[in-house]
Amino acid sequence: MKLHQKGFLLVELSRSASLWDEELIARTLREYGLSGEYWENSVRIALDELAAGGLVARLQSDLKTIRGKPMLTFHYALTDFGKTRMRDTGLLTEARTS
Amino acid sequence: MATAETVDGLRTEALKAHYARLQRWGFAWALWTAVLWGAWYVPGTALWYEKPYVDIAADDMGLRLAATAVMTWIHAIMIFGFLLLWNGALGKIPDYGRTIVRFRRISKWYALASLCGGPLAIFGSYMAMGFVGPVFAAVTSLFYPVIGAVVARLWFKEKITGRAALGMAIIIMGGIAIYGPGLFGELDISSNHAWLGYVGGIMSAIGWGLEGAVAARAIDVSDPDAGIQCRFTFEIFFWGLLILPFLAAFTDYPIGTLIVDTMTHGKAVLWILLAAACHAYCYTSFYKSFTLIGVGRGEAIGNLYAIFALIFIAAFTLQLPEWYFLIGLVLTVLGSFVMFSEPAESVAQLRDIGTGVSTP
C-alpha cells in the first residue's frame, strides 16, 4: 500500500537536501495519479501544516504567476525535528530501505 | 521595469498576507469547533427527554452511565457516516485507509486520543454531573486547554507565548463567570460520594486536554481529515467491542434492550443524528485548527462553546441566561481577541525548536 500523502511528502524531502513546493506537488500528483488546482492546493496546505509544526522549514520564497495569479512558492527542507518525528513514526526507516 | 527592491517588497507583502491567512484559517476552524460544540448541546440534551432515556431515574447513576455508553456508541457510528461524506467529498478516503493501517507507529495515537476524549472524558464528565452537579462538570471541563497546552509544551515544545497564555486565562475566567455562580447552590461537602464527582471533573479536564496533545503526535505526520475518521473508527471499536460487551456480560444493565429501544424510537434516532452531525464537523474543525494555531490556542478558542451552548439553548427554549452571562461573554470575546492579536509570523511556527535545518 502507498504511503499516506503527508508521509510521502516527508519521505521525498528526506531524500533531497531541499525541494521547491512545485517539485513536491508534481511528484505527489504523479504518485497518486491526481491532477488539477484542488489537489495542488491540497498539497500546499499539507506543506503549510508541516511547516507550522516545525517538521519542515521554509528556506526561500518566490513570487510567481501561476494560472494567471500571483502566488508564493516556497523552498522546503526537512528539519532535525522533522527527522525525529519521521523516526518516531517509522517513516525514516522506510525512506532508507525503499 | 520592476526593480529588485520592488520585487522584494511585493514578496514581503505576499508573505505577510500568507501568514495572516493561515492564522485566520486556524482561528476560524477553532471558532467553528466552539459554534458546533455549543449547537451539539441542543440535540445532546434533548435526547435525555426521549424514550428510552427519559424513563431512567436521575439518581440511577449506574444505569445512566450504561445508557451513556450505548448512546455514545450509536453517536460514534453516525459520526463515522458524516465523516465518510466529508472525506468522500474531499477525496481523502484513500488517505484515511493509508493512515489507519499504520497502527503501530501512527494511527495508535488516534486510538489513544479517542480513549482520552471518549471513555475518560465522557465518563469523567458524567461522574462530575452525577455526584456533584452539572454546573461543576461544566466548570471543570473549562480547564482542559490548560492541560492540553502544558502537555503540548512538555511533549513537543509547543510555543505558549505570554499573549496566548493571557488570552487562555481570560477565556477560562469568562467561562467561570457564566457557570461559577451556579456552583454555590450545587456544592454539598457533606455528601459522602462528592469525591467521586471531583475525580470525575479532573478526569474530564485531563481527558479532553490530553486528547489534543495526543492526537497532535499523529496529525504532525498525517492529514487531520483522515485522522479524525481514524479517531472515530477506534471509538466505535472501543465502545462496541470492549465496553458494551463487557457491560452486557458482567452487569445486569439491559444493554441490548437499550440499543434496540434507541433505534426503534424515531425521535431518539433523530436527536442522535443531529448531535452526530454537529459533533462530526466540530471535531473535524478541532483537529484542523491544531495544525495551524497549535493545541493550546485551538483548545482555548474551542472553550467558547460555553457561550454558544447558552445562546443555542436560549434560542430553542426561549429561556434567557442569567445577567452574569454578559460578563462571561465580554471576557471570552476579549480573551479571543488577545489571542488573535498575536503576530501571524509567530503563530506560523508553533514549535520552539529553532530552525534545526540539517541541510542548507
What does this structure look like?
- In chain A, helix 1 crosses helix 5 (about 90-95) and helix 2 (about 20-30) crosses helix 3.
- Chain A has about 100 residues and is an alpha+beta fold.
- A 3-stranded antiparallel β-sheet of chain A has the order 1-3-2.
- Chain A has one domain (about 5-90): Arc Repressor Mutant, subunit A (Orthogonal Bundle), CATH 1.10.10.10.
- In chain A, strand 2 and strand 3 (about 70-80) form a beta hairpin.
- Chain A contains 5 helices and 3 strands, in the order H-E-H-H-E-E-H-H.
- Chain B has one domain.
- Chain B is built from 14 helices and no strands.
- Chain B has helices spanning about 5-45, 60-90, 95-100, 105-130, 135-140, 145-155, 160-180, 195-220, 225-250, 255-265, 265-300, 305-315, 325-340, 345-350.
- The mean pLDDT of chain B is about 90.
- Chain B is globular, with a radius of gyration of 21 Å.
- By secondary structure, chain B is mainly α.
- Chains A and B meet through helix 1, helix 3, strand 2, strand 3 and helix 4 of A and helix 1, helix 3, helix 4, helix 8 and helix 11 of B.
List the helices and strands and how they pair.
The complex is a heterodimer of chains A (98) and B (360).
Chain A: H1 5-15, E1 19-20, H2 21-32, H3 37-52, E2 56-66, E3 69-78, H4 80-88, H5 91-97
Helix pairs in contact in A: 1-5, 2-3
Chain B: H1 4-46, H2 61-90, H3 93-100, H4 103-131, H5 134-141, H6 144-156, H7 162-179, H8 194-219, H9 224-250, H10 255-264, H11 266-302, H12 305-317, H13 325-340, H14 344-348
Helix pairs in contact in B: 1-11, 1-12, 2-4, 2-9, 2-10, 2-11, 3-9, 4-5, 4-8, 4-9, 5-8, 6-8, 6-11, 7-11, 7-13, 8-11, 9-11
